[in-house]
Amino acid sequence: MAKPIFVTGHKSPDTDSICSSLAFAKLKQLQGIDAVAIRAGEMNKETAFALDYFHVEPQPIVKDFYIKVGDAVHTEVEALKISASLKDAAKWFAAHPSPIAPVADNGTFVGVIDRAALAEEFIKTVTGEELSMVKDLVHDPDRFFQTTDKGCDIPQDGKYVVVDDGKYVGMVCAECVAAAEKQQVILVDHNEKKQIIDGSEDADIVGVVDHHRIGGTLSTEGPIFILFRPVGCTATIVTGLYKQAGIAIPKDIAGLLLSAVISDTALFRSPTCTEEDKKTAAELAAIAGVDVEKYGMEMLKAGANVSDLTPEEIAANDMKEFSDSGKTFTISQVQVMDTSDLLQQKDVLLNALEKMRAAHSYDAAFLMITSIIDESTNLIFAGNMDDVVTKAFAKDVVDKEVYLPGVMSRKKQIVPPILTALK
Ligand SMILES: [Mn+2]
């Protein structure tokens, strides 16, 4: 049985990543394709509000795509019983091209015996010495693996015993891992390797639907479905795919897609917002049966309340990692109705950013404190990038901060000038 295709948004998922993955997986299902939405991590409050409003259960979290030893283990390889005879052991080695044989006592793994040990026993039959039993030859293996271990940790040579909670499961080798079925994944709302769920090198990326720059080092083995469009939200593209397929958008899905458009465009205020996003939102609102402005403000307010977040959580809110020109940095963002509370605790936030920067050896950690009402951003940061920021925004950095009126969009107004300034 083939596994279902996973549809996922980026790490530190925002409303677009959660809702577009749910909506795209639903479209695939309606087209008869076995797809399920997953998510890279916890939802923010805005997203939780949207899912709750439209009575949709959040999709399960998947922490990584690594092929696990348990996915590759050959369970048909039976262990020798501790009471087995030397003849049983010889038969086992005749049937299995392995230098070691696993030995179990009532299912519990007790150790291995070596193929070479049987040769010693054969010599004894010639010299007439007393023969050993399997239980006398058992010893601990040099290495064995748990089902939850990463497949990529299996050495290139040799065969290894796999156990689960002390019980013998089977044997595994590097070739078994290479032959294991890879998880098929469709990425929505991201394409940069650093933003994909860990272990994507073990996964088979079969599609990308996105509205960001093409960055990072994503590469695939075969040709894949790719759809990039410069619109304000992935949900706008996904809505278009429903239309293209001639499939009616379910009411709850329309609500989710609408929520994503409102979120990504900050209720059409962001410069990333296009006419198509506005038109799409109006259509979706009609299907979902909500008033765009009223619902939109309610949803943004639910997300804009950061009063119960710790400084560390604020510093890491909606964080994305970027690597370019030999520098690695992160940009987090909080969108609020009023920035004054946050700016009052700027020193505490800078501290949290610096801790995060130092812990991961980032060159810098940025935080956009964006006012939805004023349509502006206070950009604060930790790390030695004052010159880059000055160059990027043609503004003097004062106390690790620049004020950027009219700036709301990370992808359109923050990332490009920083990347240009880094070159
Ligand atoms: Mn998006």
Automatic annotation (TrEMBL):
Residues 296-422 form the DHHA2 domain. Signal peptide: none annotated. It is an enzyme of class 3 (hydrolase). InterPro entries: CBS_dom_sf (IPR046342), DDH_dom (IPR001667), DHH_sf (IPR038763), DHHA2 (IPR004097), DHHA2_dom_sf (IPR038222). It catalyses: diphosphate + H2O = 2 phosphate + H(+). GO terms for molecular function: inorganic diphosphate phosphatase activity. Its EC number is 3.6.1.1. Keywords: Hydrolase, Manganese, Metal-binding. Its cofactor is Mn(2+). This is inorganic diphosphatase. It comes from Megasphaera hexanoica. The lineage of its organism: Bacteria, Bacillati, Bacillota, Negativicutes, Veillonellales.
